Amino acid sequence: MLEIRDLRVYYGAACALDGVSLDADDASITAVLGANGAGKTTLLRAISGLLRPPAGSIRYEGKELIGLAPDVIARLGIAHVPEGRGVIEELTVEENLRLGGLWRTDRADQKRAMEEVLALFPPLEPRRRQHALSLSGGERQMLVIGRALMARPRLLLLDEPSLGLAPLVVAQIMALLRRLCDESKITVLLVEQNARSALSVAEKGVVLNLGSVVVTERADALARDEDLRHAYLGF
Amino acid sequence: MRVKVPQRPLFRHLLFAALAAAVFLTYTAKTDAFTAYKLAGVAFFLVAIAGLNLLTGLSGQLSLGHGALMAIGAYTTALVLRNRAHFPIAAAIILAVVVTAAVGAFVGIAAARLRGPYLAGATLALAVGLPPLTTKYAGFFGGDQGISVRPLAPPAIGSTFAPEQWLAWISIIAALITLVLLANLQRSRFGRAFKCVRDNEIAAALSGINVARTQVFAFVVSAACAGLAGSLLAFYAGLTAPAGFSIVLSLQLLTAIVIGGLGSMTGSVLGAFALVYIPSWSDSLTSHFNLHSAVSDNIPAALYGGVLIIAMLLFPGGIAGGLRKLKAMLIRHLKGGRLHGASPEVLGAGSASVARAGKEEG
Amino acid sequence: MHQFIVLTLKGLTLGMIYAGMALSLVLIWRATRIVNFAQGAMAMFTTYIALSVVDRGGSYWLAFVVALAAGLLVGGAVERLLVRPIESAPPLNAVILALGILLVLEAVVPMIWGGQIRSFPPAFSIIGVTVGKTHIALSPFDIFTLAVLVGVMLLLVLLFRGTRLGLRMRASAFSPEVARLLGVRVGRMLTLGWALATMVGALAGVLIAPVTLLAPTSMDVVLVFGFTAAILGGLESPVGALIGGIIIGLALNYVGGYLSTDLEPLGALVILIAVLMFRPQGIISRTGERRV
To answer: With an 8 Å Cβ cutoff, are A13 and B339 in contact?
Structure first.
């Protein structure tokens, strides 16, 4: 579904991504791993159009994404949950959710989507009319994933969802991602520093270091390779 | 034989000033009264512009109220000379400087915590708020008619030495003194403090700079310059009236430093010439094309506005900045480096904003 | 006492107009984080256009509508053509751009319409209303002014809080990047924001022109008052703009009535400095501290 070839991104003279290539298969979870500064966030921002790479190609179902505006890419069915979650604090929970699917034209379907999302994330329901400012870290993560789901995306880009969350909540979110993948056939590109959790639900793992791909491997094999884990993944 | 340029900045500046003085003073003495008059205008506008450049370009504080400060200088001079035929001119000018600097201190302290658009708005309020005082207290300030100022009488140098030339001499000397002082200030630890505060207040405070005091100091210096310029303007115009000190004056000064490039001394000179010669060019355009006075009166302001808009759209660094960019481009080209990503010339707020923008890319 | 009542009522009306100007500044600030110092000049420009309509024999109401439409167009055009290209530049650039627009407008307007002071017709009579035997210091025009501004503000609230478009606009103002990721055409929202803001400014201009008379620089003061009101109200909230406007209107009208109209701008300056020194985030602030 997603084919990235030879992607290069620079910040000024510094190279953030140096010829990155990877594939994300349909209805699967691909974990993108690596230390801070490895380029993982840059990769997602390039895919969703927030950055424009000067070289390389990003193909989504055959369509070239580089050069398209972020809102255009979003409307192709790609949902990017950014670093820091991107909760719009000034809006209520419900407004945040509605916003996620606002570009879709089928209002009845949007109503259904709202009900589905609230069913998926029960803690959000009683807080519907509260400002998103008042949510806890875990609730915010649920909110932004729910908001992304409102658009009925085919590809979900998640940037470090586990950041700052208790292990129990992290496990719940990972399990949720697995369910989304299995039941709704959503493709997930999961950027994580918490490699262990990510690999526990992913099919494939891609390890970045200093802007390059050092290893692409099946998740279970990656999790078993002690040398690799110690070298790049921190466990 | 190589000319030995003095190493210490102060000596360099003095030498340069002395040379400039020799050149300009001789030129003014020889040329006709009208040109001398124009040069006088350039000179004192240069004083105001250089002062504003210190505040806005170097210290990062955008003031829209310097027209009002010039008014204070002008009115101080006019008031003190009114009905006092033998009051020494030098004293009148110095008094203007002192009074305006004091007001500058007051405003600076009140505005010390303000930045960006808040400072701009507050100083705009000052620019809009001061002129009506002349109507309110018309008895003292002469109301809309203003106060007339007698022309400077040249000493007995010769009958051919016109008052305009004398005014030009005084203005040029004042301008050179100001420029030398400002240039030295720029190179001193104060100048560095200004730049530090402009670029990153927190870092500046952490390195021991008293931010508020630095800001106020910049304000006082620039106000003193405005006071001096206003004082000379009073002689130049022969009159101080509120109409001459509207916000257009403040915006003209801003345009001048934008044309020349924020923070650039040489740019200030360019800006000063622009401010004096643009109106006279538009005057000749008017007579040439027989334009209605409603049109011709407003051509300079329209031009200034256009310059500001175009400068922000195309050349945020002003002409001086544009030249710097050109130079950087050439260097990059010659070195054949693989540098991606533009580094836009930024205004006053300087490198901090660029760095921040780069970091946001995340 | 009578003078106090008169001043209060008039101050209320003027305050609503300043609130309108403040509201347009707040709308633009929220959308693009820019203080549009040209807002007064733009309102002046649209009012002159309305005056043209009247000069050519058009009815007041036609001129009124034309002014509002002109506000939409001018605001949208300025955002799209001049502001958009510099949106990623430092905020100082936007301030200077706005000042450039101010200069150009204040220069071009007298070129087209001449520089002399013009009178602008009010919508209704400006003579105070008489109820029974008592003469109230509120004229039909004052009542109209209050009603129209309140009406417009209510409509805006309805737009922002009750419609999908409004939600998109708010999201674009609060978090443009996130909004883009959610499929919102942020650029269009910003243009619309400027268009609406300038329309509100145009409304304020048309309503205050009968009072202040119309000249190329007559809105400078209104801008300063509107700015002060916006800061007082906190810059972030339309409600703040409303409250700020009313307070400024009242306060300055008292200054004008008891001291002198010439001292009003200085009064605004004093209030402005006081607010910025002691409570820079304004009366209504959600986020607490603000760096000014």
So the answer is: yes
Six-digit token string for B106: 């007051």
- SS3 of residue A21 by DSSP: strand
Looking at the 3D structure of chain A, how many domains does it have? Answer: 1
Q: Do B337 and A13 count as a contact with CB atoms less than 8 A apart?
A: yes
Q: What is the pLDDT of residue B213?
A: 86
Does the CB of C183 have a partner CB in chain A at under 8 Å? yes
Q: Is C62 exposed, middle or buried (0-12, 13-18, 19+ CB in 10 A)?
A: middle
Residue contact A12–B341, C-beta within 8 A: yes
pTM: 0.85
Closest of B151, B160, B166, B175 to residue B36, by C-alpha = B166
Do A11 and B343 lie within an 8 Å CB cutoff?
Answer: no
CATH number at residue A26: 3.40.50.300
Give dist(CA B17, CA B25) in Å, integer.
11
Report the number of secondary-structure helices (H) and strands (E) in chain A: 9, 10
Chains B and C form CB pairs within 8 A to the count of 167
Who wins on pLDDT, A8 or B296? A8
Whether the complex's predicted ipTM is more than 0.90 is answered with yes
Q: Using DSSP, state whether A24 is helix, strand or coil.
A: strand
Calculate the average pLDDT of chain C. Answer: 89
Nearest by CB to residue A90, choosing from C174, C182, C186, is: C174
Give alpha helix (H) positions in B238-349. Answer: 247-260, 265-289, 293-314, 318-335
Q: Does A43 contact C at CB distance below 8 Å?
A: no
Checking if the pLDDT of C236 tops 50, the result is yes
Q: Is A205 helix (H, G, I), strand (E, B) or coil?
A: strand
SS3 A16: strand
What domains are defined for chain C? 2-278 (1.10.3470)
Q: Which domains does chain B have, with CATH numbers?
A: 9-360 (1.10.3470)
- Residue C128 per-residue DSSP state: P
Q: Which domain holds residue A70?
A: 2-233
A83 and B358 in contact by Cβ < 8 A?
no
CA C151 to chain B, closest CA, distance in angstroms equals 29
Q: How many residues does chain B have?
A: 362
Q: Of chain C residues 132-171, which have a CB less than 8 A from chain A? A: 164, 167-168, 170-171
Cβ of residue C150 closer than 8 Å to a chain B Cβ: no
